[in-house]
Structure formats: structure tokens, C-alpha cells
Write a structure and sequence with these properties.
Elements lengths: L1 E13 L2 E14 L3 E5 L6 H9 L6 E6 L2 E2 L7 E4 L11 H11 L4 H14 L15 H14 L4 E5 L7 H18 L2 E6 L2 H7 L2 E6 L4 E7 L13 H28 L1
Parallel strand pairs: 3-8, 3-9, 6-7, 7-8
Antiparallel strand pairs: 1-2, 1-4, 4-5, 9-10
Helix pairs in contact: 2-3, 2-4, 3-4, 6-7
């Protein structure tokens, strides 16, 4: 399996004229990779994810999965948003089954499959709980179980830990690494958190802003993926290089806007 983004542009028409949000985006993601796209506000991260998810169409260019052009949403892509998007009147089991129900699976089949993935994310004991009874991290794990239950080829994540407190976020990072190592599902995640991207991913696409375009592709090779690696010099080197790159291109974008005005 591979996910490919080819010469993708996304424009929006405004009263001031055409706004180019994404410019000539090219990416190749192989089966089993954990890829992050990092960028500051205005880099088009969420817009890019919407193109891959099939929630919006490129102005030009294309997204392909296994050489098939993406024309809309599909079960080959599971989606996890920043906000938990759980149905408050449904319990954990029912939330995890929801996508399978839409696909027309029988009650028995969807219950068995959803239960399997609730076990994978460690929430089997909370199957009857309502979302209001869960912590933020647990809610996001339910959302991940729901996405995995459809057995997608790629898991798409839109800043999934952005609303969590620091300690919960760190716990979710370790959870995601463990989940990825056990399932080897392909993950494409967008984030503005540089340290998060370095800790989780195999490769990082750094996006510049206004318009969003790939400024650098960085392969991440850490000595290990334990929490202690964040104190390692190589981790700091990756982080500092990315932060400097984003700062530089962010400043260029601000200057370009100032000149235009």
C-alpha cells in the first residue's frame, strides 16, 4: 500500500481574488510508515488532510491510494479529529461500532470487530461507559478504536492530541507508538507541535505558509522511542532544525504579506 500526493494545488476564491492555500504538494507514504506533516498556522495542514480524506477536492493535482485516485471519503481511510467527535448519547461500544453500522455490517459482526479494537486500545472494561464518564485521553482512544474498526489502509489524524493537557498528551504519544508498533498501520498525522512530530514519526514533511508547500522532507532516526529519548542530543538536533526552518519560513510569509499590503 502507498499513499501518493501528486502536484496538488488548492485555491479558494475570495473577494480579494484567488487565495492559493496549497502549492505543488508532493508526498509518497509507504505501507507501515508513521508520517507527520508539521507547519505553523496558515501552512494548509488541515486543508491537505481534507484532500487526502476525500472531504474536499484539489484545484489541480491528485491524491492516490494504491494507484486509485481519491474522489471522496472511503473506508480505506480512517479519520481521527482533534475534538473527540463521539456521540454523547452512545456508550463506548456503540461509538466504536458506528462506522461499521454505516457500512451495513450485521449487529453481531460489528460488535465483534469493535470489541476487538476496544481491546487493542485498552478500553474493553469501559464498553458500557458514556463519553462524559471518560477522560480526554480515553475519549480519543475510543475515536481511534472507531477508526481502526473499519480496518482502513491508512489512519489520518488531525492534531489529535492538541486539546489534551501535557501529561495526558505524553501518555497518548506512548500509546500511539505502542499501537503503531503492534498493528503497523500506516499513519499520516498533521500537527503544529514539533517535538510531537519528532517523537512519533519516521519521516516529517515540513510545510511553509502562504501558500502551504513542502519546504523539507526529514527522515527521523532516533536511538529509541522511549520518553527518555527527548533528552538525547539527536532529538534536540531534529527539533531545533525543524523549529528554525518553520520560524524562517514563517517570517518570510509575514514579510511577503506586508509587502503585498
Amino acid at each position: 500500500m502507498y499513499l501518493q500526493v501528486n502536484s496538488l494545488y488548492k485555491n479558494f476564491e475570495t473577494k480579494q481574488g484567488t487565495l492559493v492555500v496549497l502549492k505543488d504538494i508532493n508526498m509518497l507514504i509507504e505501507q507501515g510508515e508513521f508520517i507527520c506533516a508539521v507547519g505553523a498556522s496558515g501552512s494548509g495542514k488541515s486543508t491537505l488532510l481534507r484532500q487526502i480524506a476525500g472531504l474536499d477536492k484539489p484545484t489541480t493535482g491528485e491524491v492516490k491510494i494504491d494507484n486509485q485516485i481519491v474522489k471522496g471519503p472511503g473506508p480505506d481511510r480512517g479519520m481521527v479529529f482533534q475534538h473527540y467527535t463521539l456521540y454523547p448519547w452512545m456508550n463506548v461500544q456503540e461509538n466504536a461500532e458506528f462506522g461499521l453500522k454505516l457500512q451495513g455490517l450485521s449487529k453481531k459482526a460489528r460488535r465483534e470487530k469493535a470489541s476487538t479494537y476496544l481491546d487493542v486500545v485498552g478500553l474493553s472494561k469501559f464498553a458500557k461507559a458514556l463519553p462524559k464518564e471518560l477522560s480526554g485521553g480515553m475519549k480519543q482512544r475510543v475515536a481511534i478504536a472507531r477508526a481502526l474498526a473499519s480496518e482502513p489502509k491508512v489512519l489520518l489524524m488531525d492534531e489529535p492530541f492538541g486539546s489534551l493537557d501535557v501529561h495526558t498528551k505524553e501518555a497518548m504519544h506512548e500509546f500511539m507508538l505502542d499501537l503503531w508498533q503492534r498493528t503497523r498501520i500506516t499513519v499520516f498525522m498533521i500537527t503544529h507541535d514539533v517535538e510531537e512530530a519528532v517523537f512519533l514519526s519516521n519521516r516529517i514533511y515540513a510545510l511553509g505558509a502562504r501558500p502551504g508547500t513542502v519546504r523539507k522532507e526529514m527522515v527521523i532516526q532516533l536511538p529509541d522511542r522511549s520518553h527518555a529519548v527527548k533528552r538525547h542530543a539527536v532529538f534536540h538536533d531534529y527539533r531545533d532544525e525543524l523549529m528554525e526552518l518553520l520560524r524562517k519560513h514563517g517570517q518570510e510569509a509575514v514579510e511577503a504579506v506586508a509587502v503585498a499590503v
